[in-house]
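Dear Dr. H.,

I hope your travels went smoothly. While you were away I took the liberty of generating a structure for the chain from your last submission, since the lab meeting agenda had it listed for discussion. I wanted you to have the full record in hand beforehand rather than looking at slides cold. The sequence, exactly as received, is reproduced here:
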Amino acid sequence: MEKKSSTPVAYNRCKTWQMGFFVLNNTATNFYMVLMNYVNYYAVGIAGLLTGVVGIVLTSMRIFDGITDPIIGYIIDKTNGKFGKFRPFMILGNAILAVSTLLIYETTHLVPQSFRLIYFILLYAIYIIGYTFQTACTKAAQNCMTNDPKQRPLFTQFDSVYNTILFNGMNLLVSNVLIKKFGSFANIEVFNWLVGMVIVASAVCTILAVIGVSPKDRIEFFGTGKATKVKFSEYLDVIKHNRAIQMLVVAASSDKLSMNIAQNSVLATVLFGIMIGDYSLNGTMSLITLFPTLILTLILVNFSKKTGMKKAVVVSSVANIFVFLIFGCFIVFTDVTQISLTNFSLVPMLFTITYIVLYVVRSAISNVSGNLVIPMISDCADYETYRTGRYVPGMMGTLFSFVDKLISSLATSIVALYLAAIGYATTMPQPGDAVTTALKVFWFIMAIGFPVFGLVCNLISMKFYPLDKAKMEEIQESIAEIKAKAMAEDAQ
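The corresponding predicted structure, in token form, is as follows:
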């Protein structure tokens, strides 16, 4: 099966606007991911649950999330109805997300204390099911959008832009608007506002994503162009023999674990609200660094189009290790209280400019290495078709997510248990708390140590990842030959 084909490849390419719309499906779920980054503040500060208990619950729910992935991926691979393979799950998933998050944030603190924890767990489990429905489609449906190796990084290009705007915009909203208006995360109005905004914004993104994928959500764009029978037992064969997905899982899951830890909302509170002493700078800095980050991200994504995604991950990981270490040493070993957007003396200006430059470079490189993972899953799915003749993008995407989530599920617990160990067992760090050595060490280990560990894992796994630029061209030629034979048989 694995041989060089002489059949010229007629690539399935999508229009740029179609990819741009479809990528919004990932943005739709990322809105909820950002919202849930603050769930520990709600659960502890509003609902009255213990920090350590919340951390364990969120970790358990993440594991449950991973378990549901293969099941939903199997269902997607067997689905090919009147409304396509992916669109029904995108819409259903978003609807479940909207209802479950509304109930979590608006009603948990109202139920009796004795039933509150169980109620929170049940609603969170429902949220996970909706999240899995929609995110599984992001990983699986982009395989039918395009199979051109040069066009697949276009997903990363759009995703990087959307995510940069989303994450920086949410930082600005929370830090400079909601916290200033309502005082702290202990005010339920912060969450009332966030939930309403996220539900509306995510729904709009989902509608646009459905429009974008509609022309490609048809059987002629699924792998070999013919329906394939899928058995649940085939997951085992994929795990044992698909080296590409094995290595991608190692790279992405370690990276995801470290970045989930580094992006935890508590880290921003510790850095800006406690170490720097001005929490509003979190949002303002996000706004200032937004466009430089976008520009540098686009430059780096264009690099990945020319070199292939494997090489782009390796180069970006090496560069990011050095940037993270420099950034961490700057924060911990200098007087970061000098960082200011109102003091224009020489020293504060130098500190502020240094912070901005390091933040922009770090964020842009992280965008590339992190966001290349999703189009690389499509490459792994094509490799499976090339290797066995099976078209199972749902299986590939959710198998990846299953292992990824099991490992990255530890992130919330690691942060929560560490906080409990240094004295935050019943409360969360708040802006204005005293700066201590324990908090500085906590920030450095979480924000710098874990990301560097994840990046090192990237380098090790990419050494054994088989899908470089040349290999992907060979794979697409082979799949084109399989599809040509299938079409010839149908014509007879």
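Two observations you may find useful: Residues 17-219+227-491 form a domain with the Growth Hormone; Chain: A; fold (CATH 1.20.1250.20). The chain has one domain: 17-219+227-491.

With kind regards,
E. W.
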